[in-house]
Amino acid sequence: MRSVAHPPGEPTPAGRRRAGSAPAGRGRGRSPAARAVRYSLVAVLVLVGAWAALPATGAGNRPIAAGSPSTGALWGMTTDYVDGIAGREAQLGRTLGVHNMFFSWTDRFPGSGQTDDVAAGRMPMVTWEPWNTTLADIANGTYDTTIVSRAQAMRDFGHPIFLRFAHEMNGTWYPWSGSANGGSASGTAAYVAAWRHVHDLFAAQGATNVIWVWCANQNDSPSAAWNHWTNYYPGDNYVDWVSVDAYNWGTINGGWRSFGSMIGASAYRDYAATKPVMIAETGSNETGGSKAGWIYDLGTVLQRDYPAVEAVLWFDRSGTSYNWPIDSSGASMRAYRNVGKDTYFGGPGIPDVVVTNVSWTPAAPGAGTPILFSATLKNQGTASTPDGIVVGVGFFVDGVQTNWYGTVRDGTLAPGQSRTITSSGGPDPYATIGPGSPVSGVLNPTRYWTATSGTHAVRAVVDDVNRFDESNEYNNSLTVSLTVP
Length: 485
Known about the structure:
The chain has 485 residues and is an alpha/beta fold. It is 23% helix and 23% strand.
């Protein structure tokens, strides 16, 4: 995330937080000991044991490194929420997989925030920002005492921990960027030298629990050959995970962009074959499109197109030009909660019911014929639909609702299961079946639509009144054409 340089002694730039602590008046008043008693020691043992058992390498489209989940992707965030990360988890109904906190160059870490993360079952991540120093001074040993001290503290922490050092170096907004350190080949070389020096000092101190996350901005700024992210890469022996920061700014900074369009044009394409990829920061503004739809699309696109993305962290903060928080609207909060419930992201499971087919009887109707609509549904999610809940469908002809299915179903629609249902009622309870039907003149709440000549758009919408949560609320309809002579 972008911020501006600040003089010594001034607060960390807007949008960042020093020393990984809560801002004044937020989330304080609870001691680390008081917070820790809320968590189970079993969670710690399971967490550390699972990561320790992971193999060092992988094959195919999913590279494996320290910290990789066995399947899917870790679901996490950076947050300024008033009740902290635990408060967000209470809203979301789950424990998050990764929690990132920011630290300036002279800040001490790890601290109580990282201890709390491990106790709660989260993987902690430290983003270390080298403010008020230079890449050259880091590389030439001026700050070795500081670096060694941090390395020893991380080693003594004793748990797996992500370290994201000097991120978004291919932009212009940080003093550790190539642009701020001579540009051209000298700027990128200075960055690589500083990274390798820090890494080597950590290795010399035996901080083998540190998982190194190299993070580029989604696009190069400036867009010049010398500034391409590949020129900042320290080398496979110095990097465990490759990371990308990508934001949808809405109506500013390039306009509305889908998550997939950004990741497909990022460092993912250069490193996904050899390194697990983390989306260390992402978010969407509300203006310019549907933020909730953008979040649902993120969940779908990651599973379908980007198997090497093994962690994705939302930037749950706001500023003067951006409104990233997950609860910027009720719809966006529901979307983030629902996507995170998918087992792919370490959640407990959630249904996702879609319409796979729309049909009608008779198959070739003429004008004036009563038509009975049917829809085939499939649960492509990771949990059954709630027992006793109507898995209803609304039928629309040319945008006007004509019929529905509203019978309470016994049992559930299990993951992978399909079922065909037929309209059982409609909006006009006083309609009668028209001439030409075997039951002409019978009072019926519009189970049937009376055909009219022309080509019609017939749309079936499952769960059109939102009776239950789904991992994607934006893929619930299917539209087909019906031609009546």
